[in-house]
# Entry
Amino acid sequence: MRFEEYATEWTAGQRDLGPASLVHLESLLNIHLLPLLGSRRMNTFDHKVVENFLQTLERNGIGLAAQANAFDKLKAILLDANRLGLFDDNPVAGIKPPQYDPKRVVIPSPEQLAQIRTAGDDSFLLVADLMSGCGMRNGEAFAVNVHNIVADDVYRITEQVNRTICRHERLKHRKPGEYRDVPLPARVRQTIEWYADKHGTVDGYLLRHPGDPSRTFPHYHIANKWQRIKKSGQVDIPEGMVVYGLRHFFASNALTHNIPITAVAEWMGHKTIEITSKIYRHLMPGSLSKAAKILNLHLAA
# Structure
């Protein structure tokens, strides 16, 4: 059996995937996996084949996130085949997956954030405050709903606007109906209330498609606005920053003010605390020296 045949059968068995996740899986297969591995016979896979696949993705300039997602799917398929006894040795054993490079994280200073948040239209301001103040992903910010303010200082994130299918869907790494509660700073709550008073809501949702209120807010709107802000040259934006840097600001702001990383990981919806640590630990350059001084207090007593 060739990889394409096996992958097709394996995909058909992924009954727990939602519509958007299934579209994402098929996209990864068609764009990254099948063109390079589709005709390969399953019994010829070993760690060298997998390593060569990852090196090819890197040479082709594929983004790190896409590399990681493609590897995760390839690993899942090959582990399934290994479980069925198709290989003498596990072909992904010992393979180092593509790693997120913390150096790529670019975070604005508070002064830069103050300029950035007001550089676009009202929707950009709302999204900027939700991402930098509550740690939301952009899709989660696009699904902001006034009914999810469960206390003056708590917002309940229950869904996101999925980029692929352009509708509301469950949260990343969560089952349907699951949610996460996050801190709601007073300024962010005031921005939500101001936006609702000025623009109104649809079933509690603040952000809707500019041309059709019955549709969800389009991802491209903020992306296009961000590009125009950068091209204007009128705002102090750190080199290499992307819109996601607003969410990075939330993590950095929390961690540098001694909020436990376990809480930050939960609020940001990371699958494991290791993800939070890998991405943001280097953003606290004084943490080791500070810890050494604190630990020394009783040692020197």
